[in-house]
Amino acid sequence: MARTPSNMMPLGTKAPDFNLLDTVSGKRQCLDELKSDKATVIMFICNHCPFVKHVDEALVSLANDYMKKGVKFIAISSNDVEHYPQDGPDLMKEEAEKVGYPFPYLYDETQEVAKAYDAACTPDFYIFDAEMTCAYRGQLDAARPGNELMVTGEDIRNALDDILAGQPVARTQKPSLGCNIKWKS
């Protein structure tokens, strides 16, 4: 596994639109249908990454806590399934149901969405405000596999709390770190 940091999309960037297959419902979903008028969290994840597996429970807890407050969560997998078949759509659905994702888990077959977001790793997190401009990008928290820190979601929780309170999000944001997105050759 290559330890890859986020590319850190510029703050204020408008969220690139998409229309992708939701592997759980089997329906195509676009950003306009899924976004919130308060805050929208978009995360690039995949089934097999140990960095994602390390935070799966926290992602479910975070989404369950903040969906009640009107925040929407969207997960996207963009990995090359020809070389990483464990990240294919059927197994994405299976994983989402097993872990209990309360959010859509979308399949970016062409990898164009990952490129539009300048996503680099799994997990890679972005938070967009009510106007769908990037207010936060970076890590869930400082926990990583093997560093013995508890997974709390602190960085994302703080950013969401600021957005929901109408406060500016702290400008100091740390990149996420995870496995590189598996790009097609």
Question: Summarize this, please?
Answer:
This protein is an alpha+beta fold and 185 residues long.
Written description of the protein model:
The protein is of the alpha+beta class and 185 residues long. It has one domain (3-180): Glutaredoxin. It contains 5 helices and 10 strands. It has helices spanning 31-34, 50-67, 89-99, 112-117, 154-164; strands spanning 3-5, 19-22, 28-30, 39-44, 71-77, 105-107, 121-122, 124-129, 134-138, 177-180. The strands form 2 sheets. The chain has a 7-stranded mixed beta sheet with strand order 3-2-6-5-4-8-9. β2 and β3 (28-30) form a beta hairpin. The chain is globular. The mean pLDDT is 95.
SSE order and pairing:
Elements (H helix, E strand, L loop, with lengths): L2 E3 L13 E4 L5 E3 H4 L4 E6 L5 H18 L3 E7 L11 H11 L5 E3 L4 H6 L3 E2 L1 E6 L4 E5 L15 H11 L12 E4 L5
Parallel strand pairs: 4-5, 5-6
Antiparallel strand pairs: 1-10, 2-3, 2-6, 4-8, 7-10, 8-9
Instruction: Spell out the CATH superfamily.
Output: Glutaredoxin
- Annotation field: number of helices: 5
Task: Give the topology string: H per helix, E per strand.
Answer: EEEHEHEHEHEEEHE
The domain count comes to 1
Average residue pLDDT = 95
Strands of the largest sheet, in order across it? 3-2-6-5-4-8-9
Radius of gyration: 15 Å
Class from helix and strand fractions = alpha+beta
Q: Kindly provide the name of the CATH class.
A: Alpha Beta
Terminal CA distance: 18 Å
Uncertain runs: none
Describe the main β-sheet briefly: 7 strands, mixed
Shape: globular
CATH topology: Glutaredoxin
CATH architecture: 3-Layer(aba) Sandwich
